[in-house]
Design a protein that fits this description.
Mean pLDDT: 96
CATH superfamily of the largest domain: Medium-chain alcohol dehydrogenases, catalytic domain
Number of strands: 19
CATH architecture of the largest domain: Alpha-Beta Complex
Number of helices: 13
Radius of gyration: 20 Å
Distance between the termini: 9 Å
Strand content: 15-25%
Helix content: 25-40%
Bound molecules: zinc ion
CATH class of the largest domain: Alpha Beta
Number of domains: 2
CATH topology of the largest domain: Quinone Oxidoreductase, Chain A, domain 1
Low-confidence stretches: none
Length: about 375
């Protein structure tokens, strides 16, 4: 099989100043996409979501090798399999893409902790494919892959371990959300915190991941569920979705403790700021669990009174990928969405053309958008 010419949103420099509508850090660029190797899939991207983890690369909080084609939350259709006898995937299959290709062979994968896969973490950090190297090439040489996916493009080559098969009847702009926001947010509550029905839970931050955590907390029987965010429209949405209360962080602990009749059993931190994690730690009751899923700038340090870990018996849990096993969890979450118990479509702010991607990142940075979906233009793709 030959490769193809595709168009992808490529980041050429870190920390270009906002507003991005003017500075345009992402350039829609024609690239050559290699054919998939054995163990890989060529997919047509149907819909891709903008996530804070993309923004963290653009603004320099999480430096990655450049140039890099961004995007890591998507629904796609399999066009070709690198192995013609692939036992699982066939052309035409609809898939959700997951942003950590778990190799299935390292000690963490063998222990059931694929979200901590050493090989997937190494290739993601290097901006390469799990099986090594880059399949994307521009005029100046190789273009790096974002988290093994690079979904802001009309097509992509992904590892088969990045793909989870789903039913084809799910609208693509909904299906994409399951790849990052839902898997991470719901997983933080169900897998990482292991929320039990009747436990009280407070969620810091109402972006895509935080609102997905809120949906997971409500579906999982959290009682009550309380949200914290500075944006009034997001607090109003949390109340519509079933939160018992929604507060501005400036109000502090007092109104929440009053509402709950004490401190919460579980606190979920999705903001990615060390000072918010400190507040989340203080918010939890003695013996409570604090799950952190946000990704702070690596320079940030987190400080708590050391004695309180023992004295208050609290547990801090880091949650990467929502401690998920994507091929197990995504079908479960989709089943609950079908049953009306995880209304993830409420996270969807807009569906736009890929051409608007820079201004859409301004809207994500300002907090006015939750999940924005972009649709690629497939007409631009040409087989070589
Ligand atoms: Zn994400
Ligand atoms: Zn592994």
């Amino acid at each position: 099989m030959a490769g193809m010419k595709i168009t992808a949103a490529v980041l050429g420099a870190l920390a270009v100043p906002a507003p991005y509508a003017a500075s345009r850090p992402l350039a829609l660029t024609e690239l050559t996409l290699d054919p998939p190797r054995v163990g890989e899939l060529l997919v047509r991207i149907e819909a891709a979501g903008l996530c804070h983890s993309d923004l963290s690369v653009i603004n320099g909080d999480r430096a990655r090798p450049l140039p890099m084609a961004l995007g890591h939350e998507a629904a796609a259709t399999v066009v070709a399999t690198g192995d013609p006898d692939d036992s699982l995937f066939r052309p035409g299959d609809r898939v959700v893409l997951s942003f950590l290709p778990a190799c299935g062979e390292c000690v963490r994968c063998l222990g059931g902790e694929g979200y901590l896969c050493a090989n997937g973490a190494a290739s993601n950090g290097a901006g390469t494919m799990l099986r090594g190297g880059c399949r994307l090439h521009g005029d100046q040489g190789d273009v790096h892959h974002h988290l093994g996916i690079s979904a802001f493009a009309d097509h992509a080559v992904v590892d088969r371990r990045s793909a989870v098969k789903i039913d084809a009847d799910i609208p693509v702009e909904i299906a994409a959300l399951f790849g990052c926001a839902v898997m991470t947010g719901v997983g933080a509550v169900w897998n990482s915190a292991a929320l039990r029905p009747g436990e009280s839970i407070v969620i810091y931050g109402l972006g895509g991941v935080g609102l997905a955590a809120l949906l997971g907390a409500i579906a999982g029987g959290g009682q009550p569920v309380v949200a914290i965010d500075p944006v009034p429209a997001k607090r109003a949405l949390a109340l519509e979705l079933g939160a018992a209360g929604a507060f501005d962080p400036a109000e502090g602990e007092a109104p929440i403790v009053a509402l709950l009749g004490g401190k919460p059993d579980v606190v979920i931190e999705t903001v990615g700021k060390a000072r918010v994690l400190e507040a989340a730690y203080a918010m939890a009751r003695r013996g409570g669990r604090i799950v952190t899923v946000g990704l702070p700038n690596p320079a940030e340090q987190f400080s708590i009174p050391a004695v309180s870990i023992v004295g208050d018996g609290k547990t801090i849990i880091g949650s990467y990928l929502g401690s998920a096993i994507p091929a197990r969890d995504i079908p479960r979450y989709i089943g609950l969405w079908r049953a009306g118990r995880l209304p993830v479509e409420r996270l969807l702010t807009s569906v736009s053309s890929m051409a608007d991607i820079n201004i859409l990142f301004d809207r994500l940075a300002s907090g006015e958008a939750i999940r924005q979906i972009v649709l690629p233009d497939h007409a631009a793709a040409v087989p070589l």
